[in-house]
Design goal:
The complex is a heterodimer of chains A (about 170) and B (about 180). Chain A contains seven helices and three strands. Chain A has about 170 residues and is α+β, with helices and mostly antiparallel strands. Chain A has a three-stranded antiparallel β-sheet with strand order 1-2-3, with no helix packed on it. The chains are: A alpha+beta (about 170), B mainly alpha (about 180).
């Protein structure tokens, strides 16, 4: 084994598994041309793979999977039935895939709703703004103010009580 | 994920046994291959296939679709087969002595030149595989038998790409050490 074999050690596995990049592949192939030890190693990897796979493929060819599905079916028939609560939940349940699928449209709908509702909320707040004064009358004993509301007009009257000092004769 | 497969899984999640049967027809050979790769006994591998599909039916509601369905199924199979293998190893000590170890290999027939020698080599490879760590064995089974890419193996084993490469590299290195009589490199 050459000195640079150890640096190519992991790369050789990647090369054997067809996982190398173009550059890595070229590096390994250049090394293999001049390294019989790595060529032997690669050949041995292939022999091991064959020895591992061959018996399996032979057995799989003959395999008929006798009664396998019937056994599974019999077994799952004895699965405990769903409780009432589980079946109720089932009515509302959306499968994980559907949940994923509706996530984006759900976000869009939620955003649109917020955009629609927000101005309404803002409008509601505008009712706290000062009311427009339609008319204002001032006199010595009282003041009268008429405000305009959305649903009509409102009249407010201030009455001034005379103070004792003012009412007492001077 | 293919739409047919998505529909099958959705139906299965709702308890449809016919959908499970269709999934079984699609995947039972692959599940068998992985199971056989781990336990190397036909009857045991068939038991594992049965257990995997029963478990799948009962737990498919937990499948969130974060990974591909086949990686989910392969993961379940590999775990089930390794569990089965662990239990079998424990019970090995209670087996009769003639079942514990194969006959010693004849030195002259070690190279896989003849058919008998090839069979012996296959047995030796299998014995060597059993001496690897579960992670190394799992990665090699998915690679050598199922031909999964490193990326797919990482998904099945829920680990990084670097870990997969390391498991495969050190697994093969250990195999070479265990089979060094055969390897003249």
């Amino acid at each position: 084994m050459r000195k640079d074999c150890s640096s190519l050690s992991t790369l050789l596995d990647k090369y054997f598994d067809g996982e190398t990049s173009q550059r890595e592949q070229e590096a390994v192939e250049a090394h293999l041309k001049q390294c019989p030890a790595c060529q032997e190693r690669l050949k041995f990897m292939s022999e091991i793979k064959g020895a591992f796979r061959r018996p399996l493929l032979e057995t799989l060819e003959k395999e008929t999977f006798p009664w396998l599905w019937e056994k599974i079916e019999r077994e799952i028939r004895f699965k405990p039935r769903e409780t009432l609560w589980e079946s109720i939940k089932g009515w509302f349940k959306i499968t994980p895939f559907l949940k994923r699928r509706i996530w984006i449209p759900a976000t869009v709908v939620a955003t649109l709703l917020i955009l629609l509702i927000f101005p309404t909320l803002f409008k509601k707040n505008s009712s706290h703004l000062p009311l427009p004064v339609v008319e204002y009358i001032e006199s010595k004993t009282n003041n009268v103010m008429i405000y305009e509301l959305d649903n009509g007009k409102i009249t407010v009257i201030w009455l001034f009580e005379e103070s004792e000092a003012e009412s007492s004769p001077s | 994920m293919k739409s047919e497969e998505f529909e099958l899984i959705s139906r299965c999640q709702q308890g449809d046994q016919e959908a499970l049967k269709e999934i079984f027809n699609l995947y039972h050979q692959k599940v068998y291959r992985i199971a056989y790769g781990v336990v190397r006994q036909r009857e045991d591998a068939l038991d594992i296939v049965q257990e995997v599909f029963i478990k799948l039916y009962r737990s498919i509601k937990n499948f969130k679709g974060k990974s591909s369905f086949y990686t989910y199924l392969y993961r379940m199979t590999l775990n089930q087969a390794i569990d089965y293998s662990r239990k079998a190893k424990k019970s090995l000590f209670s087996r009769p002595t003639w079942e514990k170890e194969p006959e010693p290999v004849d030195e002259e027939t070690q190279r896989p030149d003849s058919q008998a020698a090839q069979k012996q080599f296959e047995e030796r490879v299998q014995k060597a595989m059993e001496k690897l760590s579960e992670d190394q064995r799992g990665a090699l089974i998915l690679r050598e038998i199922e031909g999964l890419s490193y990326h797919e193996i990482a998904e099945v084993m829920e680990c990084s790409l670097g870990t997969v490469m390391s498991r495969i590299h050190y697994g093969r290195k250990r195999l070479r050490e265990l089979l060094k009589d055969e390897w003249k490199g």
